[in-house]
Amino acid sequence: MIDVDFQIRWAVPVHLRIAGGSRKCINGPDAALLALQGEWPSKDSAEFSLAVARCRKALMEHGSAELARQSFVNAAVQAKVLS
After folding, report:
1. CB-based contacts of 39, cutoff 8 Å, min separation 6
2. pTM of the predicted model over 0.85
3. How far apart are CA 5 and CA 20, in angstroms?
4. What mean pLDDT do residues 48-62 have?
């Protein structure tokens, strides 16, 4: 059995503008994974891959949520979706 914690929340949410200009407030690694795997504009960068891996680790292996957040922010900057 895999123990996944979907209740992890970041101290400071990340605000994005993606999918035709719609705004999203991402408040934890679970929401970040949904955004990355859904309507993310560029899925072939190193920043994207690292963000996915660190968000998964935060959820499934109780890795650092703040490290996942920083990787997500880096991916958002690279994809030009940070609002």
Report:
1. 18, 19
2. yes
3. 31
4. 92
